[in-house]
Request: fold
Amino acid sequence: MRFPTHIAALIAVALTNTNASTTTQKRDIPNVGETTMRGNISSIAAWAYNAFAYAIVTASNSTSDLTYLCTTFNTTSTRLYTAFPETSGDIGTFARRTICDASTANPPAPLPIWYNTLWYLKSYLGGIFTVQGYYGKPFDKEIDNGPFYASMCWYLEASLMRGLWAPNRDTDESGVDVESSWCAASGYYSKGPYSTYTNESVSVDVAHQADVLVSRLVAYMLKLVLKEQEQVDYICTNYARFKPGIAGLGLVSSVFRGLVCGEGNKGIVEVQKAKLELLDAMTDLFILQLLEAGNYKGYYKYLCETTSADGYAKVGLDGKKVVEAACEAAKGETA
Ligand SMILES: *[C@@H]1O[C@H](CO)[C@@H](O)[C@H](O)[C@H]1NC(C)=O
Ligand SMILES: *[C@@H]1O[C@H](CO)[C@@H](O)[C@H](O)[C@H]1NC(C)=O
Ligand SMILES: *[C@@H]1O[C@H](CO)[C@@H](O)[C@H](O)[C@H]1NC(C)=O
Ligand SMILES: *[C@@H]1O[C@H](CO)[C@@H](O)[C@H](O)[C@H]1NC(C)=O
Reply:
C-alpha cells in the first residue's frame, strides 16, 4: 500500500487493538478509495497527547522528571481518559512510549531538536490536520469522496504548510506528508509537478499566528491533564528551566506560560471545561491551517460550498466556525 509511510504507520498503530488477548486479530488498515475512516476523535486525542509528550520531553530534558512521568503515566493521564473515553484501545499508548523511551535516553532531548522531538511533534500535528480535514466531507459509503480528496490534493500547497505546523515529506520537516495524503486518498500517489503551482511560504505574521495557536494547544493539553495544584506549582516555580526547550521548539513561551501560570489561570480547570478549551484551540489552529494552506483564488469558495460543519464536528471541531470562516474568507476572495 503506497500510503505515505509515516502516516500509514500512525494510522496502523492507532487501529491496533492494544489488548494483549486479541493480538491475533488482523489489523484493519483502510484502503485508498474506501470510505473507512483513517482516524477518528480517539486517534486525534492520542496524537495530540503524543505531540504534547514530545513538547514535554524537550521542555524538561531531564531524566528524573521523565522517569517520574513514565512511572506515574497512567495516574497522571486519568483526566485525558475521562475527556476522551475509548473502549477499544488505549489513547495513551504513543505518549507513554514517548515519555518512557525518553526517560532512558541520554540526553532525553538531544540537539538538534529538529531531527527528533520537533520532527515527531510536527508529524503528529500533521496527522491530526489531515484526519480533521478528511472529515470536512463526512464518510459515507454512498458518496464518492474521491473528487473532494483530489481537489484538496490540488489546492493544498506544501510550501505554505511549512509555516503552519502541518509539514510535508518533501521538505523533510516531518514524516507526515499532508498534501500527499490527500493525493493518495484520491488515488493519485504523488502530487506531480503539474499540480504544484506555488513555492510561496506563509507570511511571517501568519507563521507567528500558527506558533501562538500551537502554543495554546499544548498549554490546553497540559491544563486538561493537570489535576493537582502542586503539579501546577511545580511547573510554574520551575518555569525558567522549561522555557528554553519550549522556545527552542518554536512555541511562544509567553503564551504558554500565561495560560498555565498567568494570574487567574493557575488553578485546576474542571475536566469537561478543559476539554472544550482544548477543542477550541484545535478549531482555531485548524481554521488557520486550512485557510492559509492554499492560495488559489477559488479555494475558499470551494471550501465554503463543499465542507460540512457536521463532518468537522465528528472530530471535535467547532464545524460551524470552520465553515463560516471559509465562507467569510470567500467573500474577500471575490471582492
Ligand atoms: C476510533 O477508531 C477505532 C478504529 O477503527 C475504533 O476501534 C474506535 O472505537 C473508534 N473510536 C471512536 C470514539 O469512535
Ligand atoms: C498503564 O496502562 C496500560 C494500558 O492500560 C497498561 O498496559 C500498563 O500496565 C499500565 N501501567 C501501570 C504502571 O499500571
Ligand atoms: C538536553 O540536555 C543535554 C545535556 O545537557 C544537552 O546537550 C542538549 O542540548 C539538551 N537538549 C535541548 C533540546 O536543550
Ligand atoms: C519560486 O519560483 C520562482 C518561479 O519559478 C523562482 O524564480 C523562485 O526562485 C522560486 N523561489 C524559491 C524560494 O524557490
About this structure: The pocket of 2-acetamido-2-deoxy-beta-D-glucopyranose (ligand 1) is lined by residues 15, 40-42, 86, 88-89 (CB under 6 Å). The first helix runs from residue 5 to 15.
